[in-house]
Amino acid sequence: MTTTTLTTALPAEYRERLMRHAREVSFDVGTRLFNEGRRADRFWIVRTGTVALDLQVPGRRAAVIESLGHGELVGWSWHFPPRVWQLGAEATSPVRAWEFDADAVRALCEEDPEFGRAIAVWVGRVVADRLHAARVRLLDLYAPYGSGMTGAR
């Protein structure tokens, strides 16, 4: 379990506050949660199942960057202007998740700066992890000798 899962990223008090704004949703295999370039107005935390993050590569199939599972944040673009998805996401198994309205969570962050800072640090760690995963995956797919990192993450 990494430090970016909900249970390890936020103190219990902040997790509880965030979870008061969650609604349960489910997605069938193959359901697109979002596509690159579209408006990012919500995010999810996976309860069960797997979501693949992908990146459009001109002239090729979308490259799967990372697979997300229990407790992991799906979507970070809602937190940063211009609030447009930077990746795409698709359910690769039946998924149950908690869904959050981005406007409501950003309002909570503005009301309580300490809560907002905790959310920002969490989302920032997720972004850093996703950037690293994207770099490694793209090197593996397209560089002449791959990333040179076996089993990296």
Automatic annotation (TrEMBL):
PROSITE patterns: CNMP_BINDING_3. InterPro entries: cNMP-bd_dom (IPR000595), cNMP-bd_dom_sf (IPR018490), RmlC-like_jellyroll (IPR014710). It holds the Pfam family cNMP_binding. Residues 6-75 form the Cyclic nucleotide-binding domain. It comes from the Bacteria. This is Regulator.
